[in-house]
Design a protein that fits this description.
With 210 residues, the protein is an alpha/beta fold. Helices cover 37% and strands 14% of the residues. It has 7 helices and 8 strands; from the N terminus they run αααβαβαββαβββαβ. The strands form 3 sheets. A 4-stranded parallel beta sheet has the order 2-1-5-8. The chain has a two-stranded antiparallel sheet with strand order 3-4. Strands 6-7 form a two-stranded antiparallel ribbon. Helix 6 crosses helix 7. The termini are far apart.
Length: 210
Amino acid sequence: MPFAKIKEQHSKLCSGKTGQGFCFYPQPRAPSMFKRRASVIQWQKSHWPPLREVSGAERRHSMKAEVTPVLVSACLLGLRCRYNAEPKTNERLLALAKSHVMIPVCPEQLGGLPTPRPPCERRGGRVLANDGTDVTDAFLRGAEETLALMRILHCKTAILKANSPSCGCGQIYDGTFSGKLIPGDGVTTELLKQNGIAVFTEEELPSSLD
């Protein structure tokens, strides 16, 4: 094909006269577009702070400041993990879960106890089921696993189920299965307090979780 013919077809393609609306080579922008872009860049330089590289330490500090995990008894968040497989859902905690990172945990399940299971209460240094079975080892194991989880996740605060033989804080049932409360802590709460963890119950939530 003669060169003149090729040049003519190329000219038609670039001008859009072939109906394809396509050009093989980009056309230069109009001068006004360059001016507008330059003005935008100038505005950004004058209004935005200069970018700087963020160190790893600063990034880790920022992440810790933004995310403060809180350990919570799973039954308070609606999970069916209690001895009778019934939840103890706390609406205020569910509302707080929308703005805080909450880690649900059931120490008794972590200790290897099934759900459902016989109700248990502390009696002195032991934990007994209402059928007389000694489940102290399972409660101690669940407490240790809960503490290990808190250390892994850097949790400093726990909100646990009031009056529970594992999670009670300040008062627990007396071990007679009569519904009588006495001063004391659950097995898990006792271990967490010994390791500097702030423990609360759903009945006395902290004013701030930050």
